[in-house]
């Protein structure tokens, strides 16, 4: 746990709004609605490896995102500013903490941690990896070196690990990805020795949830797939937040999460 004293809920809420992790976020309303339409039309790159079972038309997705992430509920709001409710962010982080603690209480869980946002969310995942290791979890590292061509960029992406966290590398750089294929490859290599818990985002989380693995994850307001997965019982917890602010801005939220885990053990 960090040497910093965790913030009160009120101070944390103010921090989330000030840093735009929540509140008036950078993602535009136009972008959000475009992605909700894409999921409704079942565009593969917006499904994150999930196969939604419900109808989930664009209006359904908007209603879910208003409820689960706090975007503006009015369907006539078509452009300009959109929002994430910071209280929903904090509530979901606390639920994530309880889920992680539950896995640790079972004893020596096998855990996969992965992120598609190495310039932002890696800061959170590295701290979680350290916490889990200290409390007896085994951090898995399957399919290291496995590679594929990213559907989005056409570039070769290779699975690599840093501090127990899986990412994809594009030559000398960790790369942004929403692809589900890397997690699918990791689970395929593990076979029957699947993890007890996955902590991830984007396609890493979606593919794990679709495979029936206990999964918690982070998602932005323009990435509705994990919220749909949560609504359908495939994702245990989805935390709504802006997933690409300065890494140091996530520290108070991460402290709150770690404190919740430790308190629940």
Automatic annotation (TrEMBL):
<protein>
    <submittedName>
        <fullName>Phosphatase</fullName>
    </submittedName>
</protein>
<dbReference type="Pfam" id="PF15698">
    <property type="entry name" value="Phosphatase"/>
</dbReference>
<dbReference type="InterPro" id="IPR031423">
    <property type="entry name" value="Phosphatase_SCO2771"/>
</dbReference>
